[in-house]
Amino acid sequence: MTQTSESVPTEPVGLEEAADFDDRVAEHDVVLVDFYADWCGPCQMMEPAVEAVAAETDAAVLKVDVDRHQGLAGEYGVQGIPTLLVFADGEVADRMVGAQTEDALREAVSGRLE
What is the fold, at CATH topology level, of the domain defined by 13-110? Predict the structure, then answer.
């Protein structure tokens, strides 16, 4: 799968409609999906690292609010938050549960970028 002509966003993009999830993931070669909740302390602590990955790598970052999109969270086996999935060419390539360092996030996506 090749990246579409649409450029990779330099900020995390919030998922509005669950029906758009597959399209959002398919738009880019590598997508870091952050399953989070506004009330989650570790999610809030990770926000600067997630934003840095969006701004400084060629991976797209998609944020999914688990309170708003419970069905998607269940579909992807999210049992604790934050849960971060790395999609490469539309397929789950990596899964991280719990707070992660910026370096860990960068390493997870950079291993998938060409």
Answer: Glutaredoxin (3.40.30)
For residue 71, the tally of other CB atoms under 10 A from its CB is 10
SS (H, E, C) the chain: CCCCCCCCCCCCEECCCHHHHHHHHHCCCEEEEEEECCCCHHHHHHHHHHHHHHHHCCCEEEEEECCCCHHHHHHCCCCCCCEEEEEECCEEEEEEECCCCHHHHHHHHHCCCC
Contact 33, 91 (CB under 8 A): no
Residues catalogued as catalytic: 40, 43
Mean pLDDT of the chain: 92
pTM flag (> 0.70): yes
- CA dist 52 and 102 (Å) reads 8
What's the CA gap between 71 and 75, in Å, rounded? 6
Positive/negative CA dihedral, 17, 22, 26, 29: positive
